[in-house]
């Protein structure tokens, strides 16, 4: 076939290396390796700061790269796909743990400079240009191989971190022992383990990985640490040492899918995380029973819906934080509240029922608000108070 008709994309070299050049190149492998390691130590400060075993791992890669170049230079028609295994197969884990990709490419650049500096001692003058070109081509393949190694290492770390986060979320939801949970949280890199808030919302239909990364980027602006767990159609966000008030949680709603976003009360420490998570999960399960609820909504604001949905934590909260304080207060607060609610929120009707002045009813209802934190003159608060009376009476009847 005529040379002009040869395919243009076929890799070729204008001049094959002479046997003498190959012989000298092979004999210089040791010299090149020694020179490269010496040059790394002199020119790269970060290389000198590495631990001895880390320098040894990188030195092994450098030596392997030089020896593999000689093999490739002898037969450049072979596919470059083996570069990843031959060069980086010696210590890919140590490489990605010890240095960044930028430093790895700097290391590669340094080795190339060393090899180029030795070209005059290895090849005859008429072969030096071809040898330098081969070094550049080979270094390009090794650079691509390095990028591939780092990309795969990052994917592996990402998948491992996701599994760790999923295990932590599961441990929190199932109430794992405090010591074990603390060690798990420390393993995922949490530096703060106080003032923890947990949010539960709908998982969006978009790519879960995209959702998780976007949510984490936003969350880290307002908390010291964050953790995201995707549990099917619902997702859990855990924040530690939060830097914003409850009202600011609305900034996170756009990352979740349609539906309620429920947040827990603050858990002072990891020990209380399970209780906070349980309230948030129960609130999410019951939130649809209150269509007019704000979004996001506190799990404590959903006590009535949670209690009716079978949540014992909500029933206990209604009894202990609302019903019992009313019973223990003076001036017949519980009786006045019960009559007021039963008579359609009528002040005059309640006054006639109890044979007191309407202003007395107003005073007692104000005291109800002060004792419980729920205002009977507000329709939603009145519903919470009525639910508390219901479950409080049931509680007393079961004693």
TrEMBL record:
Quote any Pfam family the record assigns.
Answer: GGDEF_2
Which part of the chain is the CdaR GGDEF-like domain? 175-281
Give all residue intervals belonging to the PucR C-terminal helix-turn-helix domain: 333-390
- InterPro entries for this protein: CdaR-like_regulators (IPR051448), CdaR_GGDEF (IPR041522), PucR_C-HTH_dom (IPR025736), PucR_C-HTH_sf (IPR042070)
Q: Which residue ranges does the record annotate as region Disordered?
A: 1-20
Q: Which Gene3D superfamilies match?
A: PucR C-terminal helix-turn-helix domain
Return the similarity comment: Belongs to the CdaR family.
Under what name is this protein listed? PucR-like helix-turn-helix protein
The species this protein belongs to is: Glutamicibacter mysorens
> What is this organism's lineage?
Bacteria, Bacillati, Actinomycetota, Actinomycetes, Micrococcales
């Amino acid at each position: 076939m005529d040379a002009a008709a040869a395919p243009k994309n076929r890799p070729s070299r204008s001049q094959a290396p002479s046997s003498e050049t190959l012989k000298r190149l092979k004999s210089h492998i040791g010299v090149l390796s020694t020179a490269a390691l010496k040059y790394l130590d002199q020119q790269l400060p970060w290389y000198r700061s590495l631990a001895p075993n880390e320098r040894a791992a990188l030195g092994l890669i450098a030596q392997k790269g030089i020896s593999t170049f000689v093999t490739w230079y002898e037969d450049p028609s072979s596919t470059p796909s083996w570069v990843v295994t031959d060069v980086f197969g010696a210590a890919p884990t140590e490489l990605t743990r010890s240095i960044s990709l930028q430093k790895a490419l700097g290391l590669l650049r340094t080795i190339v400079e060393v090899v180029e500096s030795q070209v005059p001692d290895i090849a005859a003058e008429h072969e030096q240009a071809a040898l330098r070109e081969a070094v550049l081509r080979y270094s390009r393949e090794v650079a691509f191989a390095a990028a591939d190694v780092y990309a795969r290492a990052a994917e592996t770390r990402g998948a491992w971190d996701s599994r760790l986060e999923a295990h932590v979320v599961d441990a929190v939801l199932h109430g794992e022992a405090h010591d074990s949970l603390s060690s798990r949280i420390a393993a995922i890199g949490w530096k703060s383990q106080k003032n923890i808030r947990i949010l539960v919302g709908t998982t969006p239909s978009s790519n879960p990985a995209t959702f998780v990364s976007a949510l984490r980027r936003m969350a880290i602006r307002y908390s010291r640490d964050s953790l995201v767990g995707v549990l099917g159609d619902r997702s859990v966000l855990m924040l530690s040492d939060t830097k914003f008030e409850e009202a600011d949680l609305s900034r996170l709603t756009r990352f979740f899918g349609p539906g309620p976003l429920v947040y827990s009360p603050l858990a002072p420490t990891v020990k209380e995380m399970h209780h906070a998570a349980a309230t948030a999960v129960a609130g999410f399960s019951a939130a649809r029973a209150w269509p007019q609820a704000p979004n996001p909504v506190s799990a404590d604001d959903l006590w009535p819906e949670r209690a009716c949905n079978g949540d014992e934590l909500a029933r206990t909260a209604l009894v202990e934080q609302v019903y019992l304080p009313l019973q223990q207060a003076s001036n017949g607060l519980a009786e006045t509240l019960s009559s007021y609610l039963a008579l359609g929120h009528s002040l005059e009707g309640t006054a006639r029922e109890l044979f007191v002045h309407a202003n007395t009813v107003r005073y007692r209802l104000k005291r109800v608000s002060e004792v419980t934190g729920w205002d009977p003159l507000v329709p939603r608060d009145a519903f919470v108070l009525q639910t508390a009376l219901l479950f409080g009476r049931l509680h007393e009847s079961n004693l």
